[in-house]
């Protein structure tokens, strides 16, 4: 497996300028966790931190995920570290996986001088191959010595697998007690259909906030952002989202809706970057469903459309085949009435009242489909509930990447 070489046409122009977050330093190194000669490990060290997170609910989730879940269930705060490798997911590795996590955490705790229970590890890459964890352990002293407040961009690059660009986002929000900053990085390109978290995501803030409240904010924001994206309908064994609040600003964000909104905004930015980097993607697509009897039904319809290979390949071919939208609505399992259904591409109404719109123009719809960013709208005409999800098209590039992923 190698990193993608052709940058996604949907990629941002450059990595954003992320603010340094007080109490956080990061670094990266080439440890050879899978492929020799590339930067593949990152370390983030927090002098003091409240940590919250969400994870995949996959029944075959990895050893690092299970270890992080166990540690977050404890109430301890204090110094903490995130240690992440790419190239090998340490998933479906049985006893060896647990031993690898324990070995990495012991080495990091010794080098950093913090408790093993405050070392949170993640791994991403090939499933089923034993992780050569000793290489990562041996790299920890060099990672420690290279820690820097401005090391977040190299860290973002170190966790990439099939990603074609590093992903970062930030926000500043003015609260009554002062300004707090948020900065985050993510990796993800394929095996994207999150279930409680997505890919690998690490977000840092200098705000002061309690652990229970931070966890509630993180879980809510995740449901509204990362759990609303899909590239290929596959949920990873390694999906991990960790948020560290250092409190270094001295500004209390407890009970402040503006802080929760800003954190959700960073999540949303990172989530859309993941879709923009979907393996082989050439189009970013928002699917917006209105008029459902419940939000759950709206979400069910939106995901049925977003995950449909027939819909996604039509989008790749710039084919205004709205009949495939009708198909996806019908198969979703949500309550729907053919004679109340309306469909639009952007502002172009293609069908309403269960029939093709009288003024429908195939030429106009086809011209719209040539855009890089599209919106598919569906109104079920049954209620007031809405939902939106984001996806990408399905091209031959997806096959090329995944047919030789381990080669």
Descriptive notes:
With 407 residues, the chain is α+β, with helices and mostly antiparallel strands. It is 32% helix and 26% strand. It contains eleven helices and 14 strands. The protein has helices at 63-72, 94-112, 133-145, 152-158, 211-224, 257-276, 295-307, 309-316, 323-331, 362-369, 396-403, and strands at residues 24-29, 41-55, 78-88, 119-126, 167-175, 178-187, 200-205, 240-245, 284-292, 342-345, 348-352, 355-356, 373-379, 385-392. Strands 1, 2, 3, 4, 5, 6, 7 and 8 form an eight-stranded mixed sheet that branches. It has a six-stranded mixed sheet with strand order 12-11-10-13-9-14. Helix 2 runs parallel beside helix 3 (133-145), helix 5 packs across helix 6 (257-276) and helix 7 (295-307) packs across helix 9 (323-331). The longest helix is centred in the middle third of the chain and has 20 residues, at 257-276. The termini are close together. The mean pLDDT is 93.
Topology:
Blueprint: E1 24-29, E2 41-55, H1 63-72, E3 78-88, H2 94-112, E4 119-126, H3 133-145, H4 152-158, E5 167-175, E6 178-187, E7 200-205, H5 211-224, E8 240-245, H6 257-276, E9 284-292, H7 295-307, H8 309-316, H9 323-331, E10 342-345, E11 348-352, E12 355-356, H10 362-369, E13 373-379, E14 385-392, H11 396-403
Parallel strand pairs: 3-4, 7-8, 9-13
Antiparallel strand pairs: 1-2, 2-3, 2-8, 5-6, 6-7, 9-14, 10-11, 10-13, 11-12
Brief summary:
The chain has 407 residues and is α+β, with helices and mostly antiparallel strands.
């Amino acid at each position: 497996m190698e990193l993608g070489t052709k940058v996604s046409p949907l990629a941002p122009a450059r990595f954003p300028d992320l603010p340094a977050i007080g109490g956080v330093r990061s670094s990266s190194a080439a440890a050879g966790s899978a492929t020799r000669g590339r930067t593949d490990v990152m370390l983030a060290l927090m002098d003091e931190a409240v940590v919250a997170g969400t994870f995949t609910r996959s029944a075959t989730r990895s050893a690092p995920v299970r270890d992080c879940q166990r540690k977050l269930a404890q109430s301890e705060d204090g110094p903490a570290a995130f240690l992440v490798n790419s190239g090998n997911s340490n998933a479906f590795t049985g006893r060896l996986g647990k031993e690898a996590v324990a070995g990495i955490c012991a080495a990091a705790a010794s080098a950093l001088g913090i408790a093993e229970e405050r070392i949170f590890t993640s791994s991403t890459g090939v499933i089923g191959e034993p992780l050569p964890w000793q290489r990562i352990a041996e790299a920890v002293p060099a990672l420690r010595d290279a820690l820097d407040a401005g090391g977040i961009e190299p860290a973002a690059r170190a966790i990439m697998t099939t990603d074609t660009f590093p992903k970062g986002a930030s926000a500043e929000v003015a609260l009554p007690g002062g300004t707090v900053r948020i900065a985050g990085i993510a990796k993800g390109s394929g095996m994207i259909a999150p279930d409680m978290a997505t890919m690998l995501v690490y977000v840092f803030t200098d705000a002061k906030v309690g652990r229970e409240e931070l966890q509630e904010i993180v879980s809510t924001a995740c449901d509204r952002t990362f759990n609303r994206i899909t590239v290929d309908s596959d949920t990873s064994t390694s999906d991990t989202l960790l948020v560290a609040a250092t409190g270094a600003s001295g500004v209390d964000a407890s009970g402040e809706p503006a802080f929760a909104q800003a954190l959700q905004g960073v999540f949303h930015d990172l989530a859309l970057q993941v879709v923009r980097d979907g393996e082989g993607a050439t189009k970013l697509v928002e699917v917006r469903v209105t008029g459902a009897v419940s939000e759950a039904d709206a979400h069910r319809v939106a995901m049925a459309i977003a995950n449909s290979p027939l819909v996604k390949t039509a989008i790749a071919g710039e084919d205004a085949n709205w009949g495939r939208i009708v198909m996806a609505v019908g198969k979703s399992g949500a309550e729907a009435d053919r004679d109340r259904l309306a469909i639009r591409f952007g502002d172009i109404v293609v069908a309403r009242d269960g029939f093709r719109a009288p003024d429908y123009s195939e030429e106009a719809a086809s011209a719209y489909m040539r855009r890089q960013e599209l919106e598919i709208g569906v109104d079920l005409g049954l209620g007031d509930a809405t939902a939106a999800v984001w996806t990408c098209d399905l091209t031959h590039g997806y096959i090329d990447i995944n047919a030789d992923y381990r080669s």
